[in-house]
Structures are given as C-alpha cells and as structure tokens.
Amino acid sequence: MVDMDGTVISPGRLRRIAIAGALALAVAFGADATPVTAHDDIKSSTPPSRSTLQEPISTVEIDFGEVISDDVAMFLTYDLGNNEFEDIGGETVKTGETTARLDFDEVEREGTYFVQYLAPVPADGHVIAGAVSFTYGSPSTGSSDDFPIIPFVVGAVIVLAIGGWFTYRRMLVPIDDNVDEADATAAP
Predict the structure, then answer these.
(1) Strand ranges (DSSP E) for the chain?
(2) What are the start-end ranges of the H helices in 31-127?
(3) What is the pLDDT of residues 56-75, one digit of tens each?
(4) What is the pTM of this model?
(5) Residue 64 contacts residue 46 (beta carbons within 8 Å)
(6) pLDDT digits over 110-136, tens only?
(7) Strand 59-63 relative to strand 44-46, pairing
(8) Rounded to whole angstroms, how far apart are CA atoms 47 and 76?
(9) Does domain 40-171 have CATH number 2.60.40.1220?
(10) Which residue, 22, 26, 41, 128, could crosslink 119 as a Cys pair with Cβ 3.0–4.6 Å?
(11) Which residues contact 178 (CB under 8 A, 6 or more apart)?
(12) Could you tell me the residue ranges of all domains in the chain?
C-alpha cells in the first residue's frame, strides 16, 4: 500500500495503524457513558420536534444548548414509509454559539420529515447526534415515529474516523528543520 506522499507503507506498519484505530474506537465506545449522555438531547428546535405544520417551511433551527463547533452538519430527509427515507439535504448555517439553521427548498410533499444533526462540542470533543421531526399536512403513509438513529450514528462515526485518519497522517508530515528562516521569509 502507498500513502499520500508516495511512501510505501509496510504491512507491519499498516497493521499497527489498524490496531491503533481499533483501540481508539474501543476506548471511545468503552469509555464511561455518563459524559456522552449529556449530549443526547437538544435544548429546542423551530419548529418544535414532532410538530404538525399546515404551512410549508424552508428552514429549521436547532438550539443545542451547548457551544458547538463550526463543523455542525444537518440534513433533511423525507419519510417515504416502511422504513425508507429520501435524502433532501439542505445547507447548514451556524447562527450562534449554540444554534444552527438548516436551509432547504420549501417542502412540497405532505408527510413526515426528519432533520438529522451532528454537532461536535469543542469543550469535551463529544458529538451531539440525533434527529428532530415535523409533519407537513398529513403524516407519511406507513411512517415510523422514530428516525432510525443507529445507522446515522454509525455513518457519523465512520466519517469522523476517516477525518481523524487524515488528520493523523497530516500530523506525521516531517518538518524540514534545515530551512533557513531568511529563505522562508524571502519566498513568495
């Protein structure tokens, strides 16, 4: 296997990296769950979760109740019924230290919608993950009351692990101590 700068990664090194990653995940999931449960819920949302709306909307705002990082992510999905969901997406905008808004095209179909969120908390490194729902008009046929959060969290952990891997790799880039400071300041 070859890494990003063309260096060949030996099988032993790859094995050590895989073991380190597995240990990191084991520590993350095996750690005391008490601090994590502090991030299970949000303070509020507009519209309130599980509300029924008679007018279409094009934005949802969430107050997480804690300072969140700029990397907050929110996604709109539509409940097609029978545990099938359609990803609609949207654009996430951080509106305050504890709040973020999801902007999307005005909903046209009546049914149940879920806004999934993933908000890193810089103070302790945990992530607030979950979903709020609202119904426009009548609920989706065969819709479930709860969004299947487990697949979403698993996907989020995978994305965060990949980001951690690239951050770790970037950290390993050697620094050339032989660069003359005069040359570094003269470079364009």
Answers:
(1) 44-46, 51-53, 59-63, 73-81, 84-89, 91-94, 99-103, 111-120, 127-136
(2) 34-37
(3) 999 999 999 999 999 999 99
(4) 0.58
(5) no
(6) 999 999 999 999 888 888 999 999 999
(7) antiparallel
(8) 13
(9) yes
(10) 128
(11) none
(12) 1-31, 40-171
